[in-house]
Amino acid sequence: MELRLYDTLSREKRAFTPLDPTLVRMYVCGPTVYDFAHIGNARPVIVFDVLFRLLRHLYGAEHVKYVRNITDVDDKINDRAARDYPGLPLNEAIRKVTEQTERQFHDDVDALGCLRPTVEPRATEHIDEMRAIIEKLIAGGFAYVEQDHVLFSPGAMNAANGGLPRYGTLANRSLDEMIAGARVDVAPYKRDATDFVLWKPSKPGEPSWPSPGGISTPGRPGWHIECSAMSWKHLGERFDIHGGGIDLVFPHHENEVAQSCCAFHTPRMAETWMHNGFLQVEGEKMSKSLGNFVTIRELLATDKFGGRSWPGAVLRLTMLKTHYRSPIDWTAQALQESLDNIASWNDAVTPHGLDEAGSYPPPDEVIAPLADDLNFSRAIAEMHQWAKAARAGDYLAAKKLAGAADFLGLQRVAWDQAVQSCAADAEIDDASRAKFDALVAARAAARASKNWAESDRIRDELAALGVVLKDGKDADGKPVTTWEIAR
Ligand SMILES: Nc1ncnc2c1ncn2[C@@H]1O[C@H](COP(=O)(O)OP(=O)(O)OP(=O)(O)O)[C@@H](O)[C@H]1O
Ligand SMILES: [Zn+2]
């Protein structure tokens, strides 16, 4: 079966041909480990997990290598470590934060039915490779040392002749435009506004390593060089697929391409670039900085979103109902629908006595849409058809439904329990009720004083709790706003 994938670089869906069919190589940018992952962060993990499963199916499980890194060096990690463990030396505190966050991340994505990647490299274990790439870039005239920093020069890359891609191609931006649009207050160690950091000095007490480029003081790597180094170490100079969220296209992936292609004198880093769309709340990207996020853990184990906890299979199915490149609006109503789907699938397969832990083969009717740039919703539409037939007594349809669910990682073993635990409509407790009432009142006050920004902020905060606002009229016909759990 032909696999077709959309490539961000060429902006088209193309037939996928691995560089080496005996080892298909995929790299996906992983989490920065300083806090619980939110459900937006789970989207690339789930999307590329399905692709990993598909590649294993098409090429053989032992012929696919999936690398997803762990970024364990970052300012946000340092800040969190200093805040949470003020009594400990910073390096020890950092280790505590990163080890604990990595464990939490694994528990969470395991619960979402994701397979572990073949390799999960940590940035701090690849500093030698980062230094080696930086030395190559300096030697090639693509990078320079200034005030104990090493900077990459996109201008030098585009001035070089022969065989290199032009900087800006992946993001579809021209360097000239970027220069024109650059802010005026450029850091003093940069020759050009578009130059980016490969290596920087560490502050006292921060993690540090011997620096490249003849710099005598110890330092630490920039973020982009980490992925060039880890993909090189585990997949080589060129590999098949590089993935991540759409927000990573620029600057992160653009800079990875620049570093890797200039260091290894190659025209491409990855043959296919794939990016998932945003998971959104009320039309905005779910993100830590906007504060409109709900963690995977909260969804699985608390009633923070939509007034009840949600089984991993329900979260996963909800994620798979939307094409991976389209935005998803994350609502309690969508989760409730997925829960209903799983309940009805459970009813459809249970009478046929299929082995719940057994892995039935995925039907071609599911592989075919997935091989067409991961068309999840067409695959799920097939599952609904089989459920209908299975309910009417069709054993083969039940087996196909089970096979599709197993292939998609929808954890059939947990269906029965999931359905039971969610059967009773969760009661909204008094504390939540009081909190929602207070937020609605605060929003009304903000609107009365024409503070629209605050009123929008509160609406978003409620949306992130799975609560929607309802405009209505009171007994005297005056407009009032009430709330309800989105269902
Ligand atoms: N709302 C979202 N929808 C889809 N993917 C997302 C979303 N937010 C982050 N990602 C993806 O999650 C992965 C981990 O990213 P990272 O650890 O940098 O999170 P982040 O972008 O810092 O989160 P935040 O945006 O909340 O600050 C990346 O592939 C990123 O593209
Ligand atoms: Zn990366």
TrEMBL record:
Monomer. This is Cysteine--tRNA ligase. It comes from Rhodopseudomonas faecalis. It is found in: Cytoplasm. ATP binds at residue 288. Zn(2+) binds at residues 29, 227, 252, 256. Residues 16-338 form the tRNA synthetases class I catalytic domain. Residues 435-474 form the Cysteinyl-tRNA ligase anticodon binding domain. Its EC number is 6.1.1.16. A motif ('HIGH' region) lies at residues 31-41. GO terms for cellular component: cytosol. Its cofactor is Zn(2+). Binds 1 zinc ion per subunit. It catalyses: tRNA(Cys) + L-cysteine + ATP = L-cysteinyl-tRNA(Cys) + AMP + diphosphate. The gene is cysS. GO terms for molecular function: ATP binding; cysteine-tRNA ligase activity; zinc ion binding. Keywords: Aminoacyl-tRNA synthetase, ATP-binding, Cytoplasm, Ligase, Metal-binding, Nucleotide-binding, Protein biosynthesis, Zinc. Belongs to the class-I aminoacyl-tRNA synthetase family. The keyword Mitochondrion does not apply. Pfam families: CysS_C (PF23493), tRNA-synt_1e (PF01406). GO terms for biological process: cysteinyl-tRNA aminoacylation. A motif ('KMSKS' region) lies at residues 285-289.
